[in-house]
C-alpha cells in the first residue's frame, strides 16, 4: 500500500486551518496543522511533505520569513510552497512571494476547487517521486550483486529498463500537464509550477541514468519516449 502524502497547513487562525482541512480532505492525504512559522519549521525537521500551504500574514515570523528558512535548509528547499494571503498589496507583494520561493500565490477568499486542484498536482508528483526512489533503491541493490551471475545481470538490466519506461511515462504526463498549464494560463504561477515539475523529473532521469551499468537501456527507453 502506498503511504499517504503529508500536506503542511500553516496559519495562525484556527478557523482558517479548519477551512483548509475541509477543502483538502477530499484528496485523502495526511493534513498536518501548524499555527505559526516556528511550529511549521519544527514539523519540517522530522517529516517529509508534498506541499506547504503558508499564510503570509502571521504574528511574529510571517510567511515570507518562514519560507526563507525553509528554502535555506537542504532537507526542505525543494518542497513546493503555496502562499495564501487575505491582503493583496499589488504586483510588488506578489513578486515578493515568488522571490521567497513560492510556486503559487493565492489571495483569499479563494476558489476551493482551484486550490484543491493545485495541491493535487504536487501531491501526485510527490507520490510518483517516492515510488521511483524506492524502485531505484531496490534496483541499485540488485545491480550491486548482479556481477555474481550473468542471469542476475540480465534480470537487473530488465528491471532497469522497466523503471526507465515508468519514468518515461511520468515524463510524458508532466509534459502534458505543462502544456495544459500553459494553455489555461500564462501567469507566473503556471510557469513556476511547470518549471518545478521539469526540475524534479530531470533530477530523477539523471539519477536513473547513473544506475545504468553501461548497457544504455535507460537512455534508449528515454529517447524512444
From TrEMBL:
<protein>
    <submittedName>
        <fullName>Response regulator</fullName>
    </submittedName>
</protein>
<dbReference type="Pfam" id="PF00072">
    <property type="entry name" value="Response_reg"/>
</dbReference>
<feature type="coiled-coil region">
    <location>
        <begin position="160"/>
        <end position="187"/>
    </location>
</feature>
<keyword id="KW-0175">Coiled coil</keyword>
<feature type="modified residue" description="4-aspartylphosphate">
    <location>
        <position position="55"/>
    </location>
</feature>
<dbReference type="InterPro" id="IPR011006">
    <property type="entry name" value="CheY-like_superfamily"/>
</dbReference>
<dbReference type="InterPro" id="IPR050595">
    <property type="entry name" value="Bact_response_regulator"/>
</dbReference>
<feature type="domain" description="Response regulatory">
    <location>
        <begin position="6"/>
        <end position="123"/>
    </location>
</feature>
<dbReference type="InterPro" id="IPR001789">
    <property type="entry name" value="Sig_transdc_resp-reg_receiver"/>
</dbReference>
<keyword id="KW-0597">Phosphoprotein</keyword>
Amino acid at each position: 500500500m502506498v503511504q499517504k502524502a503529508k500536506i503542511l497547513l500553516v496559519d495562525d487562525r484556527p478557523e482558517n486551518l479548519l477551512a483548509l482541512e475541509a477543502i483538502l480532505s477530499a484528496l485523502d492525504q495526511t493534513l498536518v496543522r501548524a499555527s505559526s512559522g516556528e511550529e511549521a519549521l519544527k514539523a519540517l525537521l522530522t517529516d517529509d511533505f508534498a506541499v506547504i500551504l503558508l499564510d503570509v500574514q502571521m504574528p511574529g515570523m510571517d510567511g515570507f520569513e518562514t519560507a526563507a528558512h525553509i528554502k535555506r535548509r537542504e532537507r526542505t528547499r525543494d518542497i513546493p510552497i503555496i502562499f495564501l494571503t487575505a491582503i493583496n498589496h499589488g504586483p510588488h507583494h506578489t513578486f515578493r512571494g515568488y522571490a521567497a520561493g513560492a510556486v503559487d500565490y493565492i489571495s483569499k477568499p479563494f476558489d476551493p476547487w482551484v486550490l484543491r486542484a493545485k495541491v493535487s498536482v504536487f501531491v501526485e508528483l510527490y507520490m510518483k517521486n517516492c515510488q521511483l526512489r524506492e524502485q531505484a533503491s531496490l534496483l541499485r541493490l540488485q545491480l550491486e550483486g548482479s556481477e555474481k551471475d550473468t542471469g542476475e545481470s540480465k534480470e537487473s538490466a530488465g528491471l532497469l529498463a522497466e523503471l526507465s519506461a515508468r519514468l518515461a511515462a511520468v515524463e510524458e504526463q508532466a509534459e502534458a500537464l505543462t502544456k495544459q498549464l500553459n494553455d489555461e494560463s500564462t501567469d507566473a504561477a503556471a510557469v513556476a509550477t511547470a518549471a518545478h515539475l521539469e526540475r524534479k523529473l530531470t533530477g530523477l532521469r539523471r539519477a536513473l541514468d547513473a544506475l545504468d551499468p553501461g548497457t544504455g537501456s535507460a537512455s534508449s527507453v528515454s529517447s524512444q519516449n
